[in-house]
UniProtKB/TrEMBL annotation:
InterPro entries: 2Fe-2S_ferredoxin-like_sf, 2Fe-2S_ferredoxin-type, Beta-grasp_dom_sf, Corrinoid_activation_enz, Raco-like_middle, Raco-like_middle_sf, RACo_C, RACo_linker. Residues 659-682 are annotated as: Disordered. Residues 6-110 form the 2Fe-2S ferredoxin-type domain. PROSITE patterns: 2FE2S_FER_2. Gene3D superfamilies: 3.10.20.30, 3.10.20.880, Domain of unknown function (DUF4445) (3.30.420.480). It comes from Roseovarius faecimaris. Transmembrane segments: none annotated. It comes from the Bacteria. Pfam families: RACo_C_ter, RACo_linker, Raco_middle. This is DUF4445 domain-containing protein. One of its GO terms (molecular function) is iron-sulfur cluster binding.
Length: 682
């Protein structure tokens, strides 16, 4: 293999390499350690190695993919498609051969180690007042002497028996109205939807007799990396099932600006991304209904929260305006739509969709949902709420004023752009501790509660193996390197001579820290490289700089408490987040987790129609700070590159952890002296 051979980039892992023309995609995946399944030995029988190639210009990856980047469709694929069917755009990885530079997405169902989407529903008491409700009515039978239509008599029954002044029904409902009325002997149950701005109730479904099969809605958090959904009982508010899938748009770009760039550089690219995410939502709806063992047609309402780029791509709006100042939204208002308008075919055909309002061009409906869930505007003390993801949403406020911004952290916190990184899946290292004296690591992986130095760990992880390191794991690993004195304030890892441990191994002109080596058994060699640390530094610097901008706007140097929202809030320790310098210095007991606050906000809006009016009012009162045009953002960003920070003091952190102060600059410090100092202070 040489640099002149075609470049193959796999998403969502981000792993890449050059391979000779004619190399099967499955072979390239195996050589790079990409998580692509296959059980038939590459004979095109099992279909587990399905992949989706991306075509066009991918600025993020520095690749332009031509239509002939893969070999032509062959007889094996054609036979499989004829017998069992392949989704449009899919290829079999064992059959498709690399012919040119290509970006290849490995869908979740083709991954051996399925991702664990960690956006579970948080327990929350919600006052039930849904927009969609069930009504049982007795309808007058038709009378030749008083000729009226069935719909008109249904409307009269609802007015007389439930004081519903007016209803409307679309053609698809009218086509089933008469048979249902007669089957129920003119006793029926109807589902009526009436939003907070609607004057007329819509009939979304009708059943003969008394319907006791339930009524459901979906609260969907449409993120840049994952799509998480909560199937919610619209009568009780109970979450019946939660599920999630990878956002397939990752193959067009891991971060938002990469996707905007893809739309700019590839005519029709926005429509490609819209189609991909709508298909994913339909798949997710089918899967979650199956998991809960309900008929998907009972899902009659959906609420979406998402960042502005996802918002536009969901709605089928070209997001290019969001890629350049003044970052204009097509609309910032909330939207109420028919599910059919978004091609959501897996749920009830007459289902209604509510999309929360956006706050600003880079601060979306997901931030609005966090505000609805966490209510910073009702806080007595000054609260900083951070929803960490590929694009971090940050809120700062109390009763007097609430500010909001977003910060482009990128996908490093989620395991992408990390040498041994992977999504959260069984076998991924999710927590790590490094002994300051011995410099030896111990770790815990997803799917096993034991630490690696506990009895039974290796037996319990024999099936999954140790496959890589996920977002929470890499955050803790970098923080632990700093605590153990193996990495200096600038983020530089010392050599074995400087640190006194052979786990610090040379890698080019820098060093890496070896966590786990299973290469002798054909497994992975998991390290934290200098490149990994730089990726985390960039991500955490953007996050901290965004928070500091909001603090500047409020004229404060400290906050009273920090709330970590999203998957990270539940899976990283406050101490490690603070050692890394992700968040401002506060007492550790003042750092709390809100779980999936955006998802909770979506559920509140789904279950309480008044909350929709409330968040519309709240959004208008929030002060928006645009990080992309704030001159001080870069200044804060550069200072935040140091770990934890170049200039900001962290007195509360100093009370619980003593950070060594080595310097591993290659221009030189006495290595032994540096080693002694770190051992003494560790």
């Amino acid at each position: 293999m040489s640099d002149t051979d075609p470049l193959v980039v796999f998403t969502p892992s981000g792993k890449r390499g050059h391979f000779p023309k004619g190399t099967p995609v499955l072979t390239a995946a195996r050589q790079l350690g990409v998580d692509l399944d296959s059980v038939c030995g590459g004979r095109g029988i099992c279909s587990k190695c399905q992949i989706t190639p991306g075509y066009g210009e991918f600025a993020k990856h520095g690749v332009t993919v031509q239509p002939d980047a893969l070999s032509e469709w062959n007889k094996v694929e054609a036979r499989y498609d004829e017998k069992r069917g392949l989704k449009p755009g899919r290829r079999l990885g064992c059959q498709a051969q690399v012919m040119g530079d290509v970006v290849i997405d490995v869908p979740p169902e083709s991954q051996v180690h399925r991702q664990v989407v960690r956006k579970a529903a948080s327990a929350r008491v919600i006052e039930m007042d849904p927009a969609t409700r069930l009504y049982f009515v007795e309808v007058d039978e038709p009378d030749m002497h008083e000729p009226t239509g069935d719909l008109e008599r249904l409307a009269r029954a609802l007015k007389d028996q439930w004081e519903i002044p007016q209803i409307r029904a679309d053609l698809t409902l009218l086509t089933k109205l008469q048979p249902v009325l007669r089957k129920g002997k003119f006793q029926v149950t109807v589902a009526l939807n009436k939003g907070h701005r609607d004057d007329v109730a819509r009939v979304t479904e009708i059943w003969p007799g008394l319907h006791e099969g339930g009524l459901y809605g979906l609260a969907i958090d449409l993120g840049s990396t994952t799509v998480a959904a909560h199937l919610t009982d619209l009568e009780t508010g109970e979450v019946k099932a939660s599920s999630g899938i990878m956002n397939p748009q990752i193959r067009f770009g891991e971060d938002l600006m990469s996707r905007v760039s893809y739309a700019m550089m590839n005519p029709g690219g926005d429509r490609e991304m819209t189609r991909a995410v709508r298909d994913a939502i339909n798949t997710l709806a089918e899967e979650i209904a199956k998991e809960a063992e309900i008929d998907a047609s009972l899902i009659v309402e959906t609420v979406f929260v998402c960042n502005p780029v996802m918002h536009h791509l969901l709605l089928g709006i070209d997001p290019v305006e969001l890629g350049q100042a003044p970052f204009a939204l097509a609309t910032s208002e909330s939207l109420t739509l028919d599910a059919a308008a978004l091609e959501l075919s897996a749920i009830n055909p007459r289902a209604r969709v509510f999309v929360l309002p956006c706050i600003a061009g880079h601060v979306g409906a997901d931030a609005a949902a966090v505000a609805l869930s966490e209510e910073p505007g009702k806080s007595e003390d000054l609260a900083l709420i951070v929803d960490v993801g590929t694009n971090a949403e940050i809120l700062l406020g109390d009763k007097s004023r609430v500010l909001a911004c977003s910060s482009p952290t990128g996908p490093a916190f989620e395991g992408a752009q990390i040498s041994s990184g992977q999504r959260a899946a069984p076998g991924a290292i999710e927590a790590i501790r490094i002994d300051p004296e011995t410099k030896e690591p111990r770790f815990r992986v997803i799917g096993c509660e034991k630490w690696s130095d506990e009895d039974g760990f290796w037996e319990e992880t024999a099936t999954t193996g140790i496959t890589g390191i996920c977002g929470s794991g890499i955050i803790e690993a970098v923080a632990e390197l700093r605590i153990a004195g193996l990495m200096d304030e600038s983020g530089l890892i010392g050599s074995a001579a400087q640190t006194g441990t052979e786990r610090c191994v040379p890698e080019g002109r820098t060093n890496a820290y070896l966590i786990h080596d299973a290469s002798a058994e054909g497994g992975p060699r998991i390290t934290v490289t200098q490149g990994d640390i730089r990726a985390i530094q960039l991500a955490k610097s953007a996050l901290y700089a965004g928070a500091r901008l909001l603090m500047d706007e409020r004229g404060v140097d400290k906050v009273d408490r920090v709330v970590l929202a999203g998957a990270f809030g539940a899976h990283i320790s406050a101490k490690h987040a603070m050692v890394l310098g992700m968040i401002p210095d506060v007492p550790l007991e003042k750092v709390t987790s809100a779980g999936n606050a955006a998802g909770t906000g979506a559920r509140i809006a789904l279950c309480n129609v008044a909350a929709r009016a409330e968040i519309e009012k709240t959004v208008r009162q929030i002060t928006k700070v645009e990080t992309a045009i704030e001159p001080k953002f870069q200044e804060h960003f550069v200072a935040a590159n140091a770990i934890p920070h170049k200039t900001d003091p962290f007195p509360e952190l100093a009370k619980v952890v003593s950070l060594p102060n080595p310097s591993f600059n290659t221009k030189g410090e006495d290595a032994d002296g540096g080693g002694r100092r770190r051992r003494r202070r560790g």
